[in-house]
Amino acid sequence: MKVQVLTLFPRLFDNFLQESIVGIAAEKGALSVQLTDWRDYTTDRHRTVDDRPFGGGPGMVMKPEPIFAAVEDVLERSENPGMPKILFTPQGRPMDQATAEWLSGEPEWMALCGRYEGFDERVHDGFDWHEVSLGPFVLSGGEVAAMALIEASTRLIPGVLGDEESARQDSFTDGRLDHPHYTRPRSFRGKDVPDVLLNGNHEEISTWRRAESERRTAEWRAATS
After folding, report:
1. pLDDT of 116-169, one tens digit each?
2. Separation CA 111–CA 85 (nearest Å)
3. First CA to last CA across the chain, in angstroms?
4. pLDDT for 22-42, tens place per residue?
5. Region 174-191: what's the mean pLDDT?
6. CA 143 to CA 89: how far, in whole Å?
7. Which of 117, 144, 173, 179 could disulfide-link 213, Cβ–Cβ 3.0 to 4.6 Å?
8. Active-site residues: which are they?
């Protein structure tokens, strides 16, 4: 999987791309991330990427010229010009496990990271975007959302995780939250591991885990509805 990340702050990704599952995927050749700096597509000596909004108001808006130039250049150089293009924006569809599963099967996709008050509206209209939101809250830019989506999709690439069963049993893979997990010690600060997990009866353990998964999911849905 190759990911084209267009951002104003490419160095934010330096450590992220070297650590944990993402770093392992890169070492195995399962993941490649190409970082593109918006400033490389400006035409003035100050490398200006933003300007004041027409009509007044606070903040700055990202100009359309460097955005269009960067996106068009990446697409022109790519072997997959029809790749999915993800635009991180508050009005986008909420990111979920289905989004990660979809992108994990794509050979290449693009992530556009905005800043300030967002993109000039003509950017939204200029390409066939999949607009995505990390959640109903405000971030300073789209970089954190891009990292979240890269990690969520990377761990689903076959061969990346040490145990393939781990990805199949993740929360939300089947629409439910995962069941509780316990490890040693058996007793900790007055809290004991449930007896059912210690009796060696795999059928009973499976039944308990499914019931706990359904209980957690029902509580989560009630809390978030």
Report:
1. 989 999 999 999 999 999 999 989 999 999 999 999 999 999 999 976 666 666
2. 6
3. 34
4. 999 999 999 999 999 999 999
5. 92
6. 11
7. 179
8. 90, 117, 155, 170
- The domains of the chain, with CATH numbers, are 2-154 (3.40.1280.10), 176-224 (1.10.1270.20)
Per-residue pLDDT reduced to its tens digit, 54-93 = 999 999 999 999 999 999 999 999 999 999 999 999 889 9
* Separation between Cα atoms, residue 33 and residue 13, nearest integer Å: 10
pLDDT at res. 204: 97
Residue 47's alpha-carbon distances to 6, 89, 117, 151, in angstroms, are 16, 24, 18, 31
Contact 61, 120 (CB under 8 A): yes
Q: Which of 50, 60, 136, 152 is nearest to 99 (CA)?
A: 152
Q: What is the pLDDT of residues 133-145, one digit of tens each?
A: 999 998 999 999 9
| Residues 17, 13: Cα–Cα separation, whole Å | 6
The answer for residues whose C-beta is within 8 angstroms of residue 111's C-beta and 6 or more apart is 3, 4, 5, 6, 86, 88, 142, 146, 149, 150
What's CA 188's distance to the chain center, in Å? 35
126's tokens: 């200029």
DSSP state of 38: G
CA angle at 50 for the pair 49 and 52, rounded to the nearest 5°: 160
